[in-house]
Model the fold of this input.
Amino acid sequence: MGDSARFVLKGIEGMLQTEVKYFSMVRQDGERMYICLGKRALFLLDFEPPFQEQYYYAWITQVIIDAENLLLFQVDFAEGRPSLILESFEREKLCEELAICWKADFMFRKWTWQTFALKRGLCDVVKRERTASEFTTPPDKMQRMEMKGYMMFADEAFRADPPGPDGQPTGCYRLTGRDTELKFIVEKPQAVAQLGRREKDLLRLAAERVARGMSADSEMMVLRSEQYHKRMNLMGDLASFACWTVHLRTPQMDVGVIATRRKYIPPVGDQYQDIFVVQTDDVETRESPEQFMQGLERQVDTLSPLVRVPFYDDTITRIKADALLYDEDSFSWFQVLRPLPPPRPPPHLGSPPRPPTTHTHHTLLLSRLRHPASTCRHALPLSPRPGPRVVVCPLPVCRRRRGSSRATRTPRAPSTRASPTCCSARARCPCPPPDSSSPPPLLPFSPLHAVLSAWWHGTPLPAPCRPTST
Done:
């Protein structure tokens, strides 16, 4: 659970007036809401419009996990109460947390231990929705491999190793009759805030570390280490994918690694997860390095999550956007993928805000929004105070005085002609002529600036501005 999810948890506990052990987003009849697991009962909660229902653990008789739908599960209650049919994008984890809470409540009431009635079957739904099985069915002569919530397609000649001591698959596959080995490694999710600015370098180092760990030979050469672009999205996943491929060759074997980073995992969007697909083979069995990596690239192209989450949590996204907790990459990703939620009203409400007093970059931006001085969007304000405005054109030719070799800024009043010109007749401002019916001038696109200006005015985010060529 990320930091933003903890903020939402505190708000949920304040609304329910009880301690909440776990919460997750679910859907009931297409409506999104939160399911919250407390000490004595589970709650269904929604913020807009306000909605709240309570179900005691003592009422639960069994939980059915649908065998055909990866999202559906049913909670049956005693004494003739209607069953609760929900869809969860993290169903397995939710059912585990529900079993823990139910057992703790049963021991508190009965002072004895009892197993939780959890089984697989078919839920009592009137109409079953069609699933995208045609996109998750392997093509001819290929098989489907699953590992910790992810799947990919590989050659049907690979055979899986026996399960590990915990009964879970190991993710190791071997080719029949050859020494070729394929490994499917899925790391634990981590917080996006931990990545920092050297994200691409960290992914490259992780891929090279895994490749070097596959061979005990001290002599090796790097034939390929470059960024790779994943070419398929079978499930329509909203998350971001970044890949790095590494090909090492030793005197005995070839080692190929493609590290894939799935970032902004929905519905919260504040976590990432690394997946490594590793293939090893003898050097003598391959004619060229390109042929060795082609099969590995085709497998990584089909890498997809088992469950598709088609939305982001608007509540958590709004909290982080209002608090400016997103970095530049996160702002750009959420703004391009889908518009950020409407910002909350400014704190001053009805009274007009006071003009800013500091000459920072954001202050000049907000001051220009409140007091536009010119229809030219290339004019920069020199003073944030209201009243007559003095602007200066930022074009390079305008920063030189005529007959002077020293680059200085010359204050120049805004032009009122239909086609405004700059200091030199050879340089013409690319902005269109002023028009009273035209919308206000657009801002140069920057996610941080867009959120600041929208919060200041309580308006939707402005559209990006891309200057035209002169």
